[in-house]
Give the backbone structure.
Amino acid sequence: IATIALDALKGLVPLVVAKYYFGLGDSVLWTMAVLAVIGHCFSPYLLFNGGKGIATGAGVMIFFLPLEVMLALIAWFVVGKVLKISSLASLGALVVFIASSFIIHPQIEVINTHAPVLIICFIIVYKHWGNILRLITGKEKKVI
């Protein structure tokens, strides 16, 4: 739980500080969000390895699209509780997040594109590729 919370805060806190302390604009904040997820997933301190980006991605997205993140968290919890496969819960939450972001915010104000959202989601899918292959072949392990 601490790892998930700290990874989410790693994405959220710099955005809050950048916006409310330094007054940076939305384009810079969106760039910071994408770079936070890239830095988490491909950390030079871990030989360009790192996490899968779900918690950090949620942390940055809660800053911009909180309702969509809440819907994704509900999906994550339900899928995880019912199917007991962590990666499937994360990917299910990602699908709900993407779909709800297009439904609730067809045009993301100021930047007028979903590109940062899609880049972050692409990185998360890429980092889950091994899990996706195991899901397809039925070899992905359940969480007890």
Remarks:
- The helical segments are 2-20, 26-41, 54-64, 66-83, 86-104, 115-127, 129-137.
